[in-house]
Hints:
This protein is an alpha+beta fold.
Amino acid sequence: MIGVSVNKGVDVDIRTPAEKDAGKVDVGIQKDVGVNIKPTVGIKINDNKKSTKDKMNFSKAINGDIMIFAHKDIDIMILKEQKKIVAFAKDMLTDDVYGAESRLFNFLRKEGIVAYDTIQGGNIYGSMEAQMLTAEKKITQPLVLAAHIVNEWIKTEKPMMDYMEAHDDMMDDALLNPDEEHATELGEVPHEIEKGSIHRNNMFAPYMYGRNIY
């Protein structure tokens, strides 16, 4: 036999205040007062010559043009009078030169230094150039600022240049100082006065007066 006790509700809340507040979530609703505040971002450009020159490696021509020779494949000039940036092949024109020039001017375009629609081949074979944008009045030294941006691009190229230089050094060392596995057993081969079939003191040998001698 099971006893069941049924309590009749008396409509009396006997919970403590802490028990009443348990599980409640306060939601605050703020009224829109109609004020539109747009976020702003402050940008400060420091084009001071002294503070940027210490970080860069460039030379100046007698007319004020800036010359930058720190890149492996190209030389860069910032022309003062023409307000133009020009890149040339350093030693010889190769696909590496065109790739470096293209990367340079894409970088300058994205940094807001040159006008996009002025990037073109120069009047010197294998060169590329672009017109600089007109600087605001607060930028007192736009050429130095452009040189600073070029220097920042060269920093992005430095890992690649270091890798290529290390690879060239490794190949030269493998040819000039091979290890035992890749070296011949003859060692130092002495030089002879005459070698092969060509006699150095006889202009007709080995073809004596038009006759073939075997």
